């Protein structure tokens, strides 16, 4: 994988870990069933990290293809990633040991990390200007 892309993936995963730690602390203090919520958070976060890594790999690979083949490849990889998310949510909903809300928070931690990064960078750029 490209060095810049690898650094970006690592940065997002570090952000996800920080967000998950904050969420875990909140869950411990605010949840009626913290064990199931924490299991869901961990389950969702691990899948989100793997899903983000799959996205990076497919992005890097798709830019080497001609446009038509790249579109087909990207679409097929997108469908696979969404199928994985669907299976994770289904398993979470069916299992009594995993809370689906915790799983959803874990799956969304990628988005929270990216948004947090963009907000922090925007504020730093505004201060420099």
Features:
single chain; about 130 residues; mainly alpha; 4 helices; about 0% strand; flat; cell membrane; ATP synthase subunit I; transmembrane; ATP_synth_I
Word description of this protein:
The longest helix has 29 residues, at 34-62. 88% of the residues lie in helices and 0% in strands. With 129 residues, it is an all-alpha fold. It is found in: Cell membrane. It is a multi-pass membrane protein.
Amino- and carboxy-terminal Cα gap: 34 Å
Query: Mean pLDDT, nearest integer?
Result: 91
Low-pLDDT stretches: none
What proportion of the residues is helical, as a percent range?
A: over 70%
The radius of gyration is 17 Å
Number of helices: 4
User: How would the global form be characterised?
Assistant: flat
DSSP strand (E) fraction?
A: under 5%
Series of H and E elements: HHHH
- What kind of sheet is the major sheet? none
Work out the number of β strands: 0
Secondary-structure-derived class: mainly alpha
Any chance you could write out the topology, listing elements then pairs?
Layout: H1 3-30, H2 34-62, H3 67-94, H4 100-128
């Amino acid at each position: 994988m490209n060095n810049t892309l690898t650094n970006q993936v690592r940065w997002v995963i570090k952000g996800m870990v920080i967000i998950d730690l904050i969420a875990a602390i909140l869950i411990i203090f605010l949840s009626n069933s913290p064990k199931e919520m924490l299991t869901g958070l961990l389950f969702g976060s691990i899948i989100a990290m793997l899903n983000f890594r799959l996205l990076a790999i497919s992005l890097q690979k798709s830019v080497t293809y001609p446009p038509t083949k790249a579109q087909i490849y990207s679409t097929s990889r997108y469908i696979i990633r969404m199928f994985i998310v669907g299976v994770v949510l289904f398993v979470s909903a069916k299992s009594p040991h995993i809370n689906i809300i915790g799983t959803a928070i874990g799956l969304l931690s990628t988005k929270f990390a990216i948004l947090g990064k963009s907000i922090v960078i925007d504020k730093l750029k505004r201060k420099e200007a």
